[in-house]
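User: Here's a chain of 102 residues. Predict its fold as tokens.
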Amino acid sequence: MPPPEFPPLPALTRAEGEFIDRYLEVLDQVGRINPARGSDTYSALRAAQALASRAAALRDALVSMHERGETQIHAGTLARALRVLDGERRAERVTVPPVGTT
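Assistant: Prediction complete.
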């Protein structure tokens, strides 16, 4: 049985792809820091330390987009890319879980 086919990523510029990748890295770190979902201070501390460098990389990706003249964020296209890259599940880790699930 062949593996499931995932939807293709929408066409992105290299800078948009970098923006999405760096955004997801920041999101992952914030999810690891989330006190409502964490289990120990050491892993939250490590994620907080990594967050600074990931945020700087996200900033640099946006600077690159701006310097290349990419002044518009195409939210619909980038949202499709986030969905393909499991952004919805990754973003859930940032939220406070419903009562009774922790």
